[in-house]
Amino acid sequence: MKIALASDHGGIHIREEIRGLLEEMGLEYEDFGCDCETSVDYPDYALPVAEKVASGEFDKGILICGTGIGMSISANKVKGIRCALVHDVFSAKATREHNDTNMLAMGERVIGAGLAREIAKTWLTTDYAGGRHARRLDKISDYENKHL
């Protein structure tokens, strides 16, 4: 599994934690920044990462900003991306099992580093359940194909 990772200035500390987790898990990843605490624009990081995941260059992506909201909104503008904003472990598991999400967004100003690691680990290790959930995802894909 190959992971694309990025944050804006509001998520650099948790991004460091997630980088450590990915290394501990032995997962291949690429960090797309940012590398400063000076204000930057989250779409400049979310959109390129989402495009890399949508193209298949990376299997999954993880984005962090202050709240996770801007990153998730931006990523979900890219056709084929299902990015979930998650701040609890139950939702991390459910969004993989039910929604087959390919991107995860979190907010550094909302959760701490320990919880962020637990969420990311759960999200990365949970498989998609398929079954009745596939019909629902097909409806989303059909809409994307007609309108985007």
UniProtKB/TrEMBL annotation:
Pfam families: LacAB_rpiB (PF02502). Signal peptide: none annotated. The keyword Isomerase applies. GO terms for molecular function: ribose-5-phosphate isomerase activity. GO terms for biological process: carbohydrate metabolic process. D-ribulose 5-phosphate binds at residues 8-9, 66-70, 99, 109, 132, 136. It comes from the Bacteria. InterPro entries: RpiB, RpiB_LacA_LacB, RpiB_LacA_LacB_sf, SPI_LacAB/RpiB. The keyword Isomerase applies. Keywords: Isomerase. Its EC number is 5.3.1.6. Belongs to the LacAB/RpiB family. NCBIfam families: PRK05571.1, rpiB, rpiB_lacA_lacB. This is Ribose 5-phosphate isomerase B.
